[in-house]
Amino acid sequence: MIELAQRAERELPPEVWAYLMRGATVGESPWERWRFAPRVLRDVRSIDTTTKVFGAWRSPIGIAPTAFHRLVHPGGEAAVARAAAECGAPFVLSMRATTRIEDVAAAATGPWWQQVYLMRDRGITDELVRRAAAAGATALVLTGDTPYVGRSGGRGLPPLDDDLALVNVAQHLPPGADAWAAIEQDAGACVEDIGRLADLAGLPVVVKGVLRADEARRCVDAGAAGIWVSDHGGRQLGRTVAPAQALPRVAAAVGAEATVLVDGDVRDGLDALAALALGADAVFVGRPILWGLAVSGADGVRSVLNDLHDELRHVMGLAGASRIAELSDDLVVAR
So where does FMN get bound (predicted)? Predict the structure, then answer.
């Protein structure tokens, strides 16, 4: 991944690269605190990574929602969605996309999910949710850690044409409205919005940005079908616990009542193996997808996903697990 990141940096304007990497972890991955205790003498001639998480997937490693893909490559979100479908990997479309929802849906030949920000103008949010559901989204991902945009994530946005940045929202703006004010996050969002969105779209709602067991429980009790352990790529509140630390407690609190997802510094098959063993049903990556997109478009995204999938299959075999269901917390020990 280091070489891919270096190639992407050479491809992108400095201001775009700085925006993508703002908040990124420097130094040792937090997943490295987990060590493996592998099983032996197990039949691992065939490794099955298929999973069902709001859709059927070949791989449990998917693509997290990230904004403004056409800053990185002209193919944008449609190229990423196409690559994800070809790899059998989950894909989440950002509400800050630079490609129309309907065009991304046409490119996605497999299931896909729609990220949701609750905006100050709730009417815009509702219209985007309705469009996503009509276009075929199979789940909503409500990002819950952004009552305001963190200073490490939202300041210094590279130059971005409004035609791209507002491609999905422009048609829903009231006459004369200040577009950027209307689509700011609503600081009044609350757990009651989980059920409201589920009713509006007729889709399961996953709450993203959860790092506490009690908050996970609160969201599930309010109707969340899934909990996504995430620190927003380090771009919101600083000094939070890493998802790799928070995951075991959240998974224990949720149990079998809701799907558990995770992202945050997943860079190889070992990271994914640890996450799945600690209770995640699927694991998501963000920046590496953008690096691959920057280097070679959809082909680069496919390469990232296929490499991660192949690495996961390999290390599952070495750990003595032939199926995702065989990955459990007795395989990992905190160092």
Answer: 65-67, 94, 115, 143, 208, 230, 263-267, 286-287
Rounded Cα distance between 14 and 109, Å, is 34
Q: Which helix (H) or strand (E) holds 152?
A: helix 151-154
User: Is 263 labelled as part of a ligand binding site?
Assistant: yes
The pair of three-digit structure tokens given for residue 174, joined into one six-digit string: 């009231």
Q: Is 69 annotated in the active site?
A: no
Binding residue per annotation — 117?
yes
Q: Is 309 annotated as a binding residue?
A: no
Q: CA-CA distances (angstroms) from residue 198 to 93, 156, 158, 258, 315?
A: 17, 34, 34, 15, 37
Task: Give yes or no for a contact between 213 and 252, defined as CB atoms under 8 angstroms apart.
Answer: yes
Number of domains in the chain: 1
Q: Which domain holds residue 259?
A: 1-334
Radius of gyration of the chain (CA): 19
Which token pair is 7?
């190639």
Can you give the CATH number for the domain in which 308 is found? 3.20.20.70
100 is in an annotated binding site: no
Burial of 45 (0-12, 13-18, 19+ CB in 10 A): exposed
User: 188-197: per-residue pLDDT in tens?
Assistant: 999 999 999 9
Set 69, 73, 172, 232: catalytic member? 232
Contact of 248 with 279, CB cutoff 8 Å: yes
E strand or H helix at 280 = none
> pTM value?
0.95
E strand or H helix at 283: strand 282-285
